[in-house]
Each structure stands twice: as structure tokens, then as C-alpha cells.
Automatic annotation (TrEMBL):
Superkingdom of this protein's organism: Bacteria
Pfam families: ABC_tran (PF00005)
Keywords, comma-separated and alphabetical: ATP-binding, Nucleotide-binding, Transport
UniProt-recorded name of the protein: ABC transporter ATP-binding protein
Family, as annotated: Belongs to the ABC transporter superfamily.
Length: 221
């Protein structure tokens, strides 16, 4: 079953001489439970594509469907709620909230959704990511790698249907990267989650079920 579909997606920035075709008629279809890697050189349109797939930005034309929802038909408010319930985002620059502790950051999406976190599951993830002693710390007191692991825990704890990750291992050493990928695969199998992950690391891309290559805003098979 297809969980995520993008059809004839275009995203243009600027105009006239400065027009950038960041996405130029991109079609992507992701099956439920698949682990998809998006690969391509810097500036090829990877982040733009991921942002469109997660409804973080509006395409110039074309559409994205997640489960039975047309992203472009939703209001900003509907989209915010939908993202919180169904999508876990992991960004390269972590996006942790500086005035919240690691624990508060991790539970934020669940709490905003009006739910209580599954504490046993949370502690399992935290332990796997070796953040046990860090839960009451503020992000600024963590190393870059620890902050990224906290951001990953935050994305996983609500058990979202889809995880969208933009270079999640970009700032991690290779051992930690391998652990993070192993955790993503483990939880995605356990909770039947779909992962779409940008990476420029070929070894990591090899661990995905499918690789999508993007060059100059176009998909290359
Ligand atoms: P990647 O993630 O593969 O490095 P991006 O999706 O970030 O690539 O960018 C694709 C192209 O779109 C690049 O040429 C980039 O400069 C351009 N671009 C991305 N975001 C913007 C923006 N907000 N305004 C103008 N141009 C942008
Ligand atoms: Mg990028």
C-alpha cells in the first residue's frame, strides 16, 4: 500500500534570471513500511523535496498525498495537527528548544497532541541512544551528537507513521551513525513506520530498501 505520494511536484524559487528549479516535475511513491534513502549532491533539491513531502513548505505546483490526505487541501492549522500526529521530523540542525530540558524536548510533540508519553518506550529509546544521564540537561550542555540523538528520540517517541529525516547522521561519528540507523530500522519494523531519509553517505544509503537519486531537481532512476 502506498502511504506517501508526490505527483508532478515543482518548486521554483526566485524568478527571471534568478529562477531556480529546485524541484522540476518530481514523482515519488513510498510504500507503507519502506525505508527510502534520498541521495544526491549538495543543492540537488533533497531538502526541498523532504520539506514538501512533510508539508513544511508549499509546492509551486503538483501535490502530495499522505495516507488519504491531500496536503495542499489542508489549512495551516489542520496541517500542524496532522504533522504532529503522523510525522516525525529529524533535521540536521536538531531544532531542539533551548529553554526546555532534553526530557521536555523529547515529550513535547506528544504533549502538544494532548497525550501522555509511553514512558517505558521513551526510556528504552533514551537508553539505546545513550542519553540516560542527560534528560534533565539543557541542549546547550550537550555535544552535537547528543543533541542529534535527543532530536531522534523526540521524533520516535510519538510512534509516528512516517519519519522524515534530513541528514540525521550528518554530524555523528560512524559508530553512532550505525546505531542510529539500527534504531530507526528497529523501531520502524516494530511500529510499522515508513522512513524517508536524506543522506549523502553511500554506506547508509545501502541500508535502505530503496534509493531515490535526485539531480538538478529531477529524479534519476
Ligand atoms: P539539497 O538539500 O539537495 O542540498 P536544497 O533542496 O536545499 O538542496 O536546494 C535546492 C536548490 O534550491 C538549490 O539551488 C538551493 O540554492 C535552492 N534553494 C533552496 N531553498 C531556497 C530558498 N528558500 N530560496 C531560494 N533558493 C532556495
Ligand atoms: Mg539539504
Amino acid at each position: 500500500m502506498t502511504i506517501l505520494n508526490a505527483s508532478h511536484l515543482k518548486k521554483y524559487y526566485g524568478k527571471d534570471e534568478s529562477l531556480v528549479r529546485a524541484l522540476d516535475d518530481v514523482n515519488v511513491s513510498v510504500e507503507n513500511g519502506q525505508f527510502v534513502a534520498i541521495i544526491g549532491t549538495s543543492g540537488s533539491g533533497k531538502s526541498t523535496l523532504l520539506n514538501m513531502l512533510g508539508g513544511l513548505d508549499v509546492p509551486t505546483s503538483g501535490g502530495v498525498q499522505i495516507e488519504n490526505n491531500r496536503i495542499e487541501k489542508m489549512s495551516e492549522e489542520q496541517l500542524t495537527v496532522f504533522r504532529r500526529k503522523r510525522i516525525g521530523f529529524i533535521f540536521q540542525n536538531y531544532n531542539l528548544i533551548p529553554y526546555l530540558t532534553v526530557y521536555e524536548n523529547i515529550v513535547l510533540p506528544v504533549r502538544l497532541d494532548g497525550k501522555r508519553e509511553d514512558k517505558k518506550f521513551l526510556l528504552e529509546i533514551v537508553h539505546f541512544l545513550e542519553l540516560d544521564g542527560k534528560l534533565s540537561n539543557y541542549p546547550s550542555h550537550l555535544s552535537g551528537g547528543q543533541q542529534q540523538r535527543a532530536a531522534i528520540a523526540r521524533a520516535l517517541v510519538s510512534k509516528p507513521a512516517i519519519i522524515l529525516a534530513d541528514e540525521p547522521t550528518g554530524n555523528l561519528d560512524s559508530l553512532t551513525s550505525d546505531k542510529v540507523i539500527a534504531l530507526l530500522k528497529m523501531t520502524s519494523e516494530k511500529f510499522n513506520q515508513t522512513i524517508v531519509m536524506i543522506t549523502h553517505n553511500p554506506e547508509i544509503a545501502q541500508k535502505a530498501d530503496v534509493r531515490i537519486r535526485i539531480e538538478d531537481g529531477k529524479i534519476h532512476v
